Structures are given as C-alpha cells and as structure tokens.
Amino acid sequence: HELFACCKKYGVEPYVSLHHFDSPAALFNQGDWLNRKTVDAYVRYAEFCFREFREVKNWFTINELISLSHSQYIQGNFPPNHHFDVTSGIQSQHNELVAHARAVNLYKDLDETEHLGGRIGMVNVLTPAYPATDSPADQHAADLYNAFYTDFIMDGAFLGHYSARTLSLINEILRANNATLTVEDSDMEELAKAAPRNDMFGLNYYQSAFIAAYDGESTNSFNGTGDKGTSCFKFKGVGQQVDMPGIPTTDWDWLIYPQGLYDTLKHISATYPNLPVIYITENGLGHKDPEPDANGIVADPERIDFVDQHMEKVLQARAEGVDVQGYFIWSLQDQFSWANGYNKSYGLFYIDFDTQKRYIKQSALWYKELADTMADAQ
User: Fold this and answer.
1) Do 349 and 334 contact (CB within 8 A), yes or no?
2) Can you give the pTM of this predicted structure?
3) What is the Cα–Cα distance from 146 to 128, expressed in whole angstroms?
4) Could you confirm whether 64 is annotated as catalytic?
C-alpha cells in the first residue's frame, strides 16, 4: 500500500503484473505451471490481490507466458532447464492460459458485485517469424514457429479457442517430437468466457526471427554473455533461426528489426476481433554501455536510435487505426536478468553495482524530451 501511495504521490500510475517469472518455490518444486494445483493457487492469490489492493486499477495476469514455457522447457535457460521438452512446453502454455482466463473471469465477476473499477489483461512477448526465403518449405517453417510462439497463446486469450489452423500446426509439431497436450473438459469454456472480457493487451517486443526449414534433431546454444555470434536455435519439426544480410543484431544476437513491431501490431489487430486496447509494455535495447564520462553522463546513442525507430513504427500503426494507447520502455534502470546476470544493460539510468550509485544516460534525457513532446501532442 505504501508503494502504491508513493507512486500516486509522484504521478506514476501502477500497472501491476501478478506473476513475472516468480512462482513460489514450494509450487515450483511441485511442477510449477505443469501442475494444475499451481493454477488453483494462482487464482486464490489473484483474488487476495484484487480485494486487498483496490487502489490498483490496472492489472496484468501473467508476464510473457511464452517466455516461461520456452525458457523453462525448450531453450532451457530458466529452471528447471529442460531442453526441447515439447510436451511440457505446450502444456505449460495451455495451463498458463487457463490461469489467465480464470483470473480475468474472477476479476470481472468481482467487479460486478464489489465495483473494483479497474481493468485487467495479459502481457506476452511476440517474436514474429518470417521465412528466410520464398520457398514453400521456409514459409511452412515460419508458420510452425508462429503457431508455437505466438498464435497458440493469442488464440486462447483473444479467440477463446484454438483455431483449426493453429491446432493443425501445433499437432504437426507434437507429432514430430512425440509430444502431447492435455486439455481438461472445462478449460475451453473458461477461455471462451474470458476472451471478450480482457480490457487490455500488453505487447512486449524486442526482435523478430527469420526461419528456415530444418529436419534434423533439436539443438541450441544460448548467448547469455554478449559474445556475438554464439547463439544457435534449431527446433525439430519447426525450423532453425538464421541471420539475414543487412539486418543488424545486438551483441546477444537479437535481430534489430523495427518493421517486425509494425507488422505484429497490424497482424494482431486484424486477426483478433476481441483484441482490446494495446500497450507496448516492453521495448528497449540490451547493450554493453560505457562507463560514465567526467560529467557523470553515459553515452548510449544506439539505444536512442533503437527506441526512435521502434516508436516510429508504433506511431505508424496507430495512425493506421491500431488502438495503441501507451508505451513502456524497458527499462528505467539497469538491473539483474535471469538469463544474462548484470552484463546486459537496458536501463535509462546506469548503476554502478559495486557502489549502487546511479548515473543518467543520454537516452534518459532524450526519452524525457520525447515524453514531454508526446504529452503536449495529446
């Protein structure tokens, strides 16, 4: 309560995520989102938060559902560090969607009787896949990638069911990996009820992927150190990620492709009739920032350029009718990353982690000017 009061005092409106990669250890040790008891516990926790923190008017259920599933069970860089465990990867997505839907339905039902007066939605990171070439094989590989990493969750959340096309592609991936998906009888009723009740969608975007057909065994190497060119991702029954000439990458091998954000905004706006107002809830550049200069300023022109290019695409989509009403930069200050430790800087403010002293970056000064300009234009 004190934290929220302090936010309000300084004009900061809280947008609160109920789960951000932080399952309690006791539930994690019992299977995390693969255990349906976690879904039940999450809903009880959500109900407590909704009733206790009535001053919060903007709730997100789960942050980046796909990042949890992918990082825990496919890429293996989050605990429990499974690699290409496709059954767990798709099952955890479904179970997280059920938890999201139950929380949305709970909030909306409570609002009818207790007048909570707020909004609720979900946050997911979207990484649109493009075919590496015009070949039918590469196009199909991109379709498979999009089905597993985008369409399955977006369908469940905003259609309230998995479309026939999505299910066909998912089943192809499951067959290729001897994997299964279990859906309980009441799950789809819960998803269908929640789909039109979402008030907002938080879109996180950092990069796109170019996918080539791949028939071999799954393998990957994760670049968590910023040693450029060390990442590799080949997913049996889906495809392999490839670099494209002329498209720059970060030191962590993430493609810098602002067009992907525009394409994603246009695609989801056209595909999901129930899609509510969109917020860009994360967008930013992970970078190896230099130390502060003699004036205590950190030079990061690359970050300014990154945000500027992506903001241009957001505004283009908005001008063409996509209902985007906010942009949250990732992030305010440098911080710890599960996959990269402290060596990947995203913040507008530099932190000397030995002394905890903060230094302003050029991007912070630029971003403040941008925010003031946008506010004046409203």
Assistant:
1) yes
2) 0.97
3) 7
4) yes
